[in-house]
Hints:
Elements (H helix, E strand, L loop, with lengths): L14 E13 L4 E16 L2 E4 L4 E7 L2 E2 L1 E5 L2 E5 L4 E12 L12 E5 L2 E5 L19 E10 L3 E4 L2 E7 L3 E12 L6 E4 L2 E5 L2 E5 L4 H7 L3 H12 L8 E4 L8 E3 L2 E4 L11 H9 L8 E2 L6 H17 L5 H13 L18 H18 L1 H14 L4 E2 L1 H9 L7 H9 L8
Pfam families: Peptidase_M1, Peptidase_M1_N
Enzyme class: hydrolase
Keywords: Aminopeptidase, Cytoplasm, Hydrolase, Metal-binding, Metalloprotease, Protease, Zinc
Amino acid sequence: MAMTPYFPAHGDDRYGVSHYDLRLVYRVAANRLDGTARLTVSAAEPLGTLDLDFGRLRVAGVTVDGVPARYTHTRDKLRVTPPAPLREAVVEVRYSGKPVPVASPWGGLGWEELSDGALVAGQPIGAPSWFPCNDRPGDKASYRISVTTASPYQVIANGVLVDRRRGAGTTTWVYEQAEPMASYLASVQIGRYQISEQGGARLACPPRLAARVRHDFARQDQMMALFGELFGPYPFAGYTVVVADDDLDIPVEAQGMSIFGRNHVDGVRGCERLVAHELAHQWFGNSLTVACWSDIWLQEGFAAYAEWLWSEASGGPLAGDHAHRWWHRLTLLPQNFILADPGEQALFDDRVYKRGALTLHALRRAMGDEAFFAALRAWTAEHRHGTVTTREFAGHVQRYTPRPVGPLLSAWLHDKPLPHLV
């Protein structure tokens, strides 16, 4: 079985999933999740077994096209043996239990119990904590996510809310995500939230924080307009910001959604750069998703550079000022990693973010603004809702300038020493 370069225990490129139908019931007080997941699966060659990434929840049964199938569930893998070799099928898994985050170098990932609710923080390998999946970023699928929970709670998931049904003390929320989505970007947020509209986006937050949230996110519509001009049209049907009533170490990226902690809202826009960063991920990370985690700079470097572009457009320091400040900071750090292949442990190293942004700024200086931003708009258009690689990006930008950019990109992306910033 071929493995992705990073996280070899996750994902299987022998098959793909085109659609996930997740039907969940969550009891907040007990932190109890009961689920049925239906996966529409196709394989290039007949498969005698199907390996799904799935965490510590208890499996109650598996069917393939409605026929019971044998399975084993050990070491975060659910191995299904279909009644006959599988090419195309709907695989259904019924499961239940208390969700346990997936262990990682960055702590537990995935479904997390809050003080009064729950959230999902899936990047990069947390999805199996709450549903069986093919957990590799390059396997993108459409989703239908149905969550039933106690009626005092609001549920926010990816995509468009298509149905909301009240029962005896519970409410079922149904969301459909039509645009293809990587498993790590699938998300559910549950809390006692006030939901409102502002600047074309939805805001969900604890009622007592509503005034601060409205103020701190008031310029998000201006960011949306700026990024639409620089990067191309916003790629999804809507955008939702969730502010949890808990502190979070960092905001959480999800498709069509960003999740912040109450500590990111201070009423004076002290975290506005993070608002820009998470919004930019809708283009770079969500619509354009890396095929392999080694290319993460194509997501985090672009989102970090978007912070600088927003600063420049909104009256703050110019992107060039940020670039020079961060270049000097990076010269003081070890020059011991390769941006285009930083290694699993360094995926979220600050050098990935800032050296990635510096790479883009150096490319912008070399190409000129007109060619650079034309190349970015074409990049997002040509790969809309798809996957991307560093090699593809290098070939793409070269089409927009007569100047050879290969040496510049090679120095920033593939050499360890930090290049000089011209």
